[in-house]
From TrEMBL:
Domain of life per record: Bacteria
Stretches assigned to the Methyltransferase domain: 60-149
Keywords from the named record: Methyltransferase, Transferase, Ubiquinone
Any one Gene Ontology molecular-function term assigned to this protein's record: methyltransferase activity
InterPro entries referenced in this protein's UniProt entry, alphabetically: Methyltransf_25 (IPR041698), SAM-dependent_MTases_sf (IPR029063)
Originating species: Actinomadura namibiensis
This protein's record includes keyword Transmembrane: no
Single GO biological process annotation from the record: methylation
Protein known as: Ubiquinone/menaquinone biosynthesis C-methylase UbiE
Amino acid sequence: MFSPHGPSLRELAVQALSSVEHGYDLLAPKFDHTPFRTPDGVLDATTDALRAFGPFDRGLDVCCGTGAGMRALKPLCRGRVTGIDFSSGMLAQARGAHPDAEWVQADVRALPFAEAFDLAVSFGAFGHLLPAERPAVFAGVHRALRPGGLFAFPLGAPPPVTSGWYWALLGFDLAMRVRNAVWRPPFVMYYRTWPLRATRDDLAAAGFTVTTVPLASLGRREDGSPRYRLVLARKAGKPA
């Protein structure tokens, strides 16, 4: 599951007993050697799907972590690309890997931008945001985009109840709820809190027009439905 360069079980335990911000500061130097980093296949599939909607000028990676999303963002954007995250440790890794990008430390629940970007993306970070925080995040992204701007992110289909993954993810979320009930500071990391229907509803409430496209290269489930969909949330207006 982890490479020899990844964190030890002890390091993961220390992270899990920290706050989200401090935990990722600690994990940052080894994060890219864990399965928590968004796989290149997901990043490349997102880039391929977005090419038909571009090219774009300026791009934003929301909850950028160590900067893996730049693999998807840079080929799509002609202008400057920016990553935003609240972990100084993760941003330090991102700066080292992509010195040509702009990096901003801030809380994504209060994005400090206004009509500055044409494309915003996010990968693998939504589990760190509670459902009640979605409206603030989506409102901030909407404000950060120029008229006609696009917010895109992949969402995986939930595993069927007969799958071992269904029960593993359910067990993880329950364990995390117990941990947060008895230990402070809380560590927010849930796998089952961003279903597609609720996510679409909150995006629409923030002012977006929402569609989805299947990421066919990532395969299909046994019932024929795609394993991943790319959510496309468009801000009203004519792109520059």
